[in-house]
Amino acid sequence: MLPSNGGFRRVLLLLVSIVLVWSFPSASAQHDGSLDDVDHVLFNDSHGVQMSDTLELNGTSSVPLRNASWSVVNLSAPTPTTLLSGPYLTSVQPVSDTEFHWELQVDASDVDCTCLVQIVVEDSNGLQRVWQLLVYLGTEGHRPVMLNEPPFQPSPTLEVVDDTESHRFMLTSSSFVHQDVVLPASSSAIIRVSATLCEAPNGVCLEEQREAQIPFSTTPLGVNLTLDAGALGLDQGIWKLHIEATDDLLRSTGQITMTLLHDTHPPTVELTLDSVVNESETFHVHAVVDDGYIGSQVNLTWTIVDENGIRRGLLDGEQLAPDHLVLNMSGQGTYSVEVSARDLAGQSTENNSSFTVLNLRPTAKISVDGLVVADGSVLSLSQEEDWAIDASDSHDNEAVEFLWVVNDDRSWRGSSVLSKAQFDGPGVYTVELIVFDDDGSTHSSVIEIQIEASEESVVGSVSAGYLVLVLVILLGGALMVRLRKTPSMALPKWNDSAGPSRHRDSTPDVHSDATIEEDEARG
User: Fold this and answer.
1) Distance CA 397, CA 61 (A)
2) Which of 63, 147, 169, 436 would give a disulfide with 401, using CB separation of 3.0 to 4.6 Å?
3) What confidence score (pLDDT) does residue 487 get?
C-alpha cells in the first residue's frame, strides 16, 4: 500500500536530507577548530520583523552550527529577561563546503514583546560568539529600539566590553552622530531626543547629571544628532552622555550611553632630573604631564641622545613606569633625554633636558692577605711563607685595568695579583700599583716590601761569618807576633890601635858585676 501524499512527501524529504549529508562529509571537519573573524551567521530577515504565534527564522552560516544554541530576550521589561531558549537549532543543512542553511521554529503563541533573538556558537576553545536579530512578537509591548542599547553587542564576541570605551566619541567643537533606530509597525517617527550629561573621567559622574538639549533630525534608518561642545557647556574633559528617543506614541527607546572626550589643547610635560651625575651610577628621570582635565591619558615616547647625536630608545629595565625612567650611563659626556607626549585627542608636545655624566677617577689599593696596605708603607714578608700582593680592593664604578711596577725596572699589566714567585728572593723592593679606567684616568699606590730570608739561610750565613772572623783574628795574631820579635843586643868587638893584644890583662875590669865577684869569692 502506497503512502499518502503527505507521508510520501516526508519520506522524500528524509531521503534528500540523507543524500545531502553524505554528499558533504568534510564540511564539519573544516570547522573543528576555533572561530575566526570571517565566520558568520546571517539572518534572512531584517531587524524589526514582526511575528505572531510562531517564531520562524532562517538564514545561512559559514560554520556547521553543531554547537549552536538560541535564546529570546525580552527588551520590553525594565530589565532584559530571557523568555525562551534551546540547545540547538531546528535544522542545519550543508549547502557547500563553507556554507550551511539553518532554520529555527519556536512556538511563541503566548509571547508579546520587543525581543532580541540570539544565536550563540561556542568553538573548541570555549569562546562564544553571538549573532542577534530584533523581532517584534505578538501585538503588545512593542517600542522603538536604538541598536546600540544594551544588550546589543557591538561585535559577535561575547566578551565583556567596557561601554564607556566602546562608545567614546571625540568632540572638538561640533559634530554629527548617527544612531540606528528600529520602529515597530505602529510607530511612524521619532519626535523627541532627550539627554542627561555629567563629567565622568572614570565612568562615574563627579556631580549630579544635568539635562541637555540635543538637536536632531530623522532619517529612514534612525536619527542624526548634533553635538556641540559650546551648546552643551562642556569644559575640557571626559563626559558621560545618556540619550534616549521617543516616538509619536510617546514610547521611549532604551538608554544608550556615549562617552564624549572634549580636548582642544595639547598636553604639557616637564622633566625633572639631576643635571650632573657620575658614570655608572643610577639616577632617575620623572615626567610631570598635565592635559588640563581629570582622567586624561597621555602616551609618552622617550629618546636618549648622546653628545655625538646618536639617538636610541629605552633599554630593558630603564622604564619603571610610563613617566619614570631609571638610567645608568657608562660613558662620560653630555646627554639629552627627550620625551614626546600625545593625548587621546591626538595632540602632542615635546620637551627635552640635558645632563652631564662625569668620570670618577679610580682608586688604587694594595692588600696582602686581606690587609689593606696604606700608600708609602713598608711591609716585611717572609721568604718561607706563601703570600701575594693583591689589587682587588682597588675600586671604580666601572672595570679597571692594573699595571704593576717593581723597582722601576720591570712591570706586569693586566693581572690583579703579584705572587712571591715574581720576586728574585730576599731583599728590598719598591712596588707601585697603577690602575686605569676606560676614560684614561689613573691612580697609583706605592709600598716598600722587605723579603726576609729563611732561618737556615741566616744560620749558614752567620757560621760562614764566624769562620772568616776567626781566620782573620789568627792571621792578625801571627802577624803581630812576628812584628814584636826582639833584635840581638851583642856589641861588636873592637881592636885597639896598637893591634891585637897577644896576652890577656890579668887586672880585673873596674866595671865588672860586683855580685859575680861576691859569688866567686864565696868559692
Assistant:
1) 68
2) 436
3) 54
Q: Report the 10 Å Cβ neighbour count for 412.
A: 13
Contacts of 210-219 spanning 24+ positions with Cβ under 8 A: 212/241, 214/243, 216/190, 216/245, 218/189, 218/190, 219/178
Place of cell 890579668: 506
Q: Which of 262, 297, 312 represents a domain boundary (last residue)? A: 262
- What single-letter amino acid sits at 251? R
3-state helix, strand, coil in the chain (%, to 5): 15, 45, 45
Structural domain range at position 342: 268-358
Residues 235 and 327 in one domain: no
> Could you tell me if residue 10 is inside a domain?
no
Query: Do 391 and 332 share a structural domain?
Result: no
**Phi and psi angles of residue 298, each rounded to the nearest 5 degrees, phi first:** -125, 130
Whose cell is 820579635? That residue is: 485
Would residue 338 count as lying in a domain? yes
**Can you point out the beta strands (E) in 123-164?**
128-137, 145-146
The beta strands (E) that lie in 306-425 are given as 311-312, 319-321, 324-327, 333-343, 348-358, 366-368, 371-373, 378-382, 388-390, 401-406, 410-413, 417-419
What does the pLDDT average to over 67-82?
92
Residue 484 makes CB contacts below 8 A (sequence gap 6+) with none
Q: How many domains does the chain have?
A: 4
Q: Is residue 389 domain-shared with residue 292, that is, in the same domain?
A: no
Tell me the pLDDT tens digit for each residue of 26-73.
333 334 445 555 688 999 999 999 999 999 999 999 988 888 999 999
Asked if 170 and 108 sit in the same domain, the reply is no
Q: What is the pTM of this model?
A: 0.61
Residue 185: φ, ψ to 5°: -60, -30
Q: Are 458 and 465 in contact (CB under 8 A)?
A: no
Query: What's the Rg (C-alpha) of the chain?
Result: 58
**Do the domain assignments include residue 475?**
no
- Considering the domain boundaries, does residue 516 fall inside one? no
